[in-house]
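sanity check both lines:
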Amino acid sequence: MAVVVCVTGAGGFIGSWIVKLLLARGYAVRGTSRRADDPKKNAHLRELDGAAERLTMVRVDLLDRASLRAAFDGCDGVIHTASPMHDIPEEIIEPVITGTLNVVEVAADAGVRRVVYCSTIGTMYMDPNRDPDALLDESCWSDLDYCKNTKHWYCYAKTIAEKRAWEAATARGLDLAAVIPVMVLGELLQPEMNTSTTHILKYLTGEATTYVNASHAYVHVGDPPAARGGVRGAPGAGGRRYVCAERTLHRGELCRILADLFPEYPVPTRCRDEVNPPKKGYKFTNQPLKDLGVKFRPVHQYLYEAVKSLEEKGFIKKTSNTKALHVQSSPNCQRPC
């Protein structure tokens, strides 16, 4: 009998890729969703290889422990990705914080072997006093007052949620690990637009005529699921926070890559800030995940796949002038190139 893993938020951008990876590896997957019986929302999951035999969708409300108990019963592991992603405090704080705590405590009650929590880089770098040249690693936490003052409520809620998850896991003796993805891009399996993909959509439609003077870290959408798979299965991998990032890019470099891959789109070539030097992004290490066997895919690949996916799903008009992609190994750049 296949080992059962529960994936909360199974129909989301990352959640869908986690389900795909687990099914490919022979696991039985119990996916959760508030709209588990919605055929349109979850049709893409049921089309995955192995889904007919080993995927079950169940309706779960993270604030309802009874629904979580039913979902986790008999599961070897839980991968928790379900989370709203916006900055409306009245609608995000309780679902993220209480929902995460419920997942950890119910998993402990159910005898789950390990919980892998999908956190966010927003729990690490939101600190005005952090040394920009210091390495961002598992010891770093965002400053809650700074998150509140700048109205970054998603980062605020996720930081509190992760801290409380660690406290509860320690108190209950639960094996917990946190995978912390950065800006995630690549092929959309789900039919709906997701937040991180809108990050590049505006540069393809002409909505943005300039780019901002900022740097972000990026990763292929398939790499966080690979990281969670490695962390979930590897002995001794629990008890840690893993930064899941491929590289840091200045927005100008991101646009230059997009323009090179897709010259037919009106990708901006000018920075909105023409006075100050390019802002540096934070430094990080992804070596702990590489040690678990994660092989990060290069930026040209996930940008290419993201745009082709947007075309195929009708979010942008498909064109015929795109260059063929020849994926090459790219250096693990830690700062704007």
